[in-house]
Task: inverse folding
């Protein structure tokens, strides 16, 4: 595919890598962002920046006009305020889908492994609502569902480690969770964008590692030079956070509830089907992203 790709969420962790890969293949890219300064690292001959918010249907329509494909890598999980999974992951994506239908464009929607109508997590329910709206829209579309991004969690554990190098783990930290590198997910998004034969299909991608947070935290600490034990925010503190400060700042409530779910539910994953279909996808391990320093 050549032509023009609209990337909503193009300024984000995943979106930035998707934009880079599209540009490398000679595809023109329009990045939709609420703040063009966040797209400064992407600006180039093949990249145009469009200021807009997916919660605004008019902005979505204008952003997608003239594009051959609309790629959605947005989420509203982190807030604040009215930026929520409901307003961004469901309604914003529906605006993009409507815009794509009007423009005759295809859609690639990034969603989450585990998205379902009765999920305890609002984000997962709203991703599922967007997937359902997409299926009903008749727009030629491909869905890419991913497990948790390794780079995000490595960054958060690194940020909380402090001077004593003890990363903070939410909950018991004993539940195995599948982590995937953004690099692998971006490669899959790029493959499906380029391959119209994937329209009407859904692909799930995870990484080679099912790790507990304690294990990932230990790897982060060791990578920083010293093997130390993580600190824990116990489950009762997470419940309290969800029910007190979470009422005033809903994004903190969402984070606490998500942490409780990730600490308890089955978050393991094996994605043989997707990797069989795309055997050349990278399969990045946590150890590759966190090489241990030489002693
Ligand atoms: N992080 C994970 O562990 C994970 C796991 C599975 C799936 N995913 C999915 O992967 C995709 C990318 O996630 P990420 O972690 O790379 O995201 P990220 O780095 O947190 O970036 C979020 C992006 O969403 C955009 N956005 C948010 N609200 C918007 C709005 N109202 N209008 C327009 N754009 C808006 C932001 O754009 P501006 O700020 O520039 O406006 C930004 O580019 C998302 O669909 C996410 O649900 C993530």
Result:
């Amino acid at each position: 595919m050549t032509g023009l790709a609209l990337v909503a969420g193009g300024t984000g962790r995943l979106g930035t890598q998707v934009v880079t890969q599209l540009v490398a293949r000679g595809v023109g890219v329009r990045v939709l962002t609420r703040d063009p300064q966040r797209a400064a690292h992407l600006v180039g001959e093949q990249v145009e920046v469009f200021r807009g918010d997916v919660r605004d249907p008019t902005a979505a329509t204008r952003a997608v006009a003239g594009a051959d494909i609309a790629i959605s890598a947005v989420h509203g999980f982190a807030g604040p305020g009215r930026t929520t999974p409901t307003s961004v992951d469901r309604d914003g994506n529906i605006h993009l889908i409507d815009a794509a239908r009007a423009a005759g464009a295809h859609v690639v929607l990034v969603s989450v492994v585990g998205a379902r109508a009765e999920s305890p997590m609002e984000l997962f329910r709203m991703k599922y609502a967007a997937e359902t709206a997409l299926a009903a829209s008749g727009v030629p579309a491909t869905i890419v569902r991913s497990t948790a991004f390794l780079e995000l969690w490595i960054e958060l554990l690194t940020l909380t480690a402090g001077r004593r190098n003890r990363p903070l783990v939410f909950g018991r930290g004993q539940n195995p969770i599948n982590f995937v590198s953004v690099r692998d997910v971006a490669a899959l998004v790029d493959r499906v964008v380029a391959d119209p034969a994937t329209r009407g299909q859904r692909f799930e991608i995870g990484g080679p590692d099912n790790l507990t947070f304690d294990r990932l935290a230990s790897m982060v600490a060791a990578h920083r030079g010293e093997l130390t034990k993580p600190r824990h925010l116990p489950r009762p503190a997470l419940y309290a956070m969800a029910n007190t400060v979470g009422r005033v700042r809903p994004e903190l409530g969402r984070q606490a509830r998500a942490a409780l779910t990730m600490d308890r539910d089955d978050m393991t994953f094996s994605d043989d089907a997707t990797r069989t279909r795309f055997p050349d996808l990278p399969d990045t391990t946590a150890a590759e992203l966190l090489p241990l320093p030489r002693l």
User: Anything to note?
Assistant: The first strand starts at residue 4 and ends at 8. The mean pLDDT is 95. Residues 8-9, 11-15, 32-35, 38, 53-55, 73-76, 83, 88, 92, 110, 112, 146, 148-149, 152 surround NAP (CB under 6 Å).
